[in-house]
Structure formats: structure tokens, C-alpha cells
Amino acid sequence: MRPIPANDLHTEPSHFPGLDVYAVAGNPISHSKSPTIHQRFAEQSLQAMHYGRLQPSVGEFAKVVKSFFATGGKGINVTVPFKLDAQALADVLTPRAKLAGAVNTLWIKEGRIYGDNTDGAGLVRDLLAQGIQIRGARILLLGAGGAARGVTGPLLEQEPTQLIIANRSSTKADELVGLFHEVAKNHEVQFESRTLLELEDQIKTPLAFDLVINATAAGLSDQSPLTADAVSHVFVPSSFAYDMVYGKTTAFMQQALHRGARVSDGLGMLVEQAADAFLIWRGADVSINPRSVLSELRA
Ligand code: ATR
Questions:
Q1: Pair 152, 236 in one domain
Q2: Does the CB atom of residue 250 touch ligand 1 within 6 A?
Q3: Residue in 63, 74, 83, 204 annotated catalytic
Q4: Distance between CA 16 and CA 272 in Å, rounded?
Q5: For residue 23, how far is the Cα from the chain centroid?
Q6: What is the total count of domains within the chain?
Q7: What is the pLDDT of residues 25-50, one digit of tens each?
Q8: Does 171 reside within a domain?
Q9: Which of 182, 244, 268, 271 counts the most CB atoms within 10 A of its CB?
Q10: 86 falls within a domain
Q11: How do residues 65-103 score in pLDDT, each as one tens digit?
């Protein structure tokens, strides 16, 4: 075993004899809560594992991941900006990872790299754990990028009455609706695209929504995708507003609060997608309690 260099992100498998080593890969990665979450799951379920961080340079994701697996690493969670690289890298994709167009969970089995996407399942479980009824609900999903695509399939499978995808540019929203058209049909969901501007139009948006999910990147620049006119159409006090961003009350959440709606950030989704990844890696029969880890993170 060689000494740990100063810039090591505490991930090299040879430094952890007797432990199965996992990591989260992203750039930047220092802010990530995944190591804390997975270390707590490992403690809860008495798993002999270590979970570290990897920060590949952009363009070096495949090289870093292959080297991690070649030196004995067991699995990787993937975050911004590498979810598409992870999908391209995997030898085998689960059906939901294929549909999501992105991979957030990698593992190695008999020399082959497997890829899955647990983001959508994580969102659904967090919503249900918060008492939000998805079946029969009218849902507005804001954004049509990777984050929105990752959750569209799992939301449709919960059989809401309606799922509207609204995006700044109509092309991307139309594409997403085209991609999931069959899934929506199979689950009898009214599934349509809108532009964000069309949300201001009371004829196009006559009713408020039970659930509004922000999957745009607007919050990163302290903006909301909703204009004041759109806000008055989409929210009523019984609405629930969910922002996939975590750790702050975003402009989108503030708009919903002003309308008397309930709000949530995306920390629960982060914990629940991690829980699914953990169970894929360690076996569905291990016992973990994601909600208690979430409470600890919020404390
Ligand atoms: P991610 O993987 O986070 O979804 P992405 O694929 O780049 O990232 O998608 C970003 C999404 O946020 C897109 O839906 C984008 O809208 P456009 O397709 O019209 O570009 C949306 N977005 C980013 N900034 C926004 C803003 N200020 N207002 C509204 N939507 C925004």
C-alpha cells in the first residue's frame, strides 16, 4: 500500500484493504453529500465498505472510472456533468437508464460495467413519503433537459391524470413528449408539452396543478422558470411545489409559498436515489432507513 498523496480524494481501493470501495464522481465534487449518505447506509446495514469522491477532469471521466474499476472499485454514483458520459461508458444499461438517457449508478460484474438511473424512482419515493398523491394528480414538470428526462418515465408509471412538460424552448419539450408517448399511452396519462410562456395563457392553462416540479437549471442562477402571470395560474393553496435543487429556498419555492402552497427542496430525492443505488450494490435484502438519514441531514 503506498502513502495517500495530499490531493487524493480518498478513493483508491488499495488504500482500504478489507473494504468494498465505492465513490461519487462529479466535477466539482467537494460539496457532495453522497459520501455522508452512503457511509450512514453502510453503518445502518453493517456493510464493510468505504465511500469516497472522484473528480475527473471534463473529458477524462471514462479513463478515471475504468481505472477505479480496474483497481478493485465496486461502484460509482455519477453526478453533474457526467451522467451522459456514464451512459455511454456502460456495457449494459437497465431499461429505465435507456429511457432516462442518463446514468447515475454504475457497478461492475464479471468484468462488465452496468448502468442504471435511480433519480426518477428517488423522486417518486420522496414525494410518496411526504404524503403527496401522484396517482390521479395533475402534474406540471418544468424543464426538458437531462433532469426532467430522468424523472418522466417513473412519474408516468405512477399514473397521474395529466403530465404537462413546460420548457423555455418548445423543441426540447416536444422531443421529450415524443420519447415517452408510448409510456404515457400505456398508463392512460394525458401527456402534453407547453412553452413556459404558454403557462401565462389562461386558455392554454385553465386549471392549477396539484404538483409542480422544477427540473430546470434556473435555480442555479437564483431565477425561477415561472413568470408572475404563470405563477397565478399554476399554483393554488392545495398545490405542492417541488424543486430538485436542495439546500436553499429557491425563487421557485418562494413563488409557491406566496401563493399559499406547500414546498419541498430535493434533498429527499437525493437520499432516496442514493438508497436505490445502495440496494443495487449491496443487495435488496440489506436493511437501511433513508428517512432517518434525511432527518439527520436536515438537523
Ligand atoms: P439538466 O441535466 O440539469 O436538466 P440541461 O440538460 O442543460 O441540464 O437542461 C437544463 C434545463 O433547464 C432546460 O430545460 C433549460 O431550458 P432550455 O431547454 O430552454 O434551455 C432549463 N433552464 C435553464 N435555465 C433556465 C432559466 N433561467 N429559465 C427557464 N429554464 C431554464
A1: yes
A2: no
A3: 83
A4: 26
A5: 17
A6: 2
A7: 999 999 999 999 999 999 999 999 99
A8: yes
A9: 271
A10: yes
A11: 999 999 999 999 999 999 999 999 999 999 999 999 999
215 and 156 fall within a common domain: yes
Q: Are residues 189 and 243 in the same domain?
A: yes
3-state SS of the chain? CCCCCCCCCCCCHHHCCCCEEEEEECCCCCCCCHHHHHHHHHHHCCCCEEEEEECCCCCCHHHHHHHHHHCCCCEEEECCCCHHHHHHHCCEECHHHHHHCCCCEEEEECCEEEEECCHHHHHHHHHHHCCCCCCCCEEEEECCCHHHHHHHHHHHHCCCCEEEEEECCHHHHHHHHHHCHHHHHHCCCEEEEEECHHHHCCCCCCCCCCEEEECCCHHHHCCCCCCHHHHHHHCCCCCEEEECCCCCCCHHHHHHHHCCCEEECCHHHHHHHHHHHHHHHHCCCCCCCHHHHHHHHHC
Query: What are the C-alpha distances in Å from 136 to residues 175, 267, 281?
Result: 24, 25, 33
133: in domain: yes
Task: Identify whether 83 is a catalytic site residue.
Answer: yes
Q: Determine the structural domain holding residue 257 and report its residue range.
A: 121-265
The count of residues in the chain is: 299
Q: Is the CB of 168 under 6 A from ligand 1?
A: yes
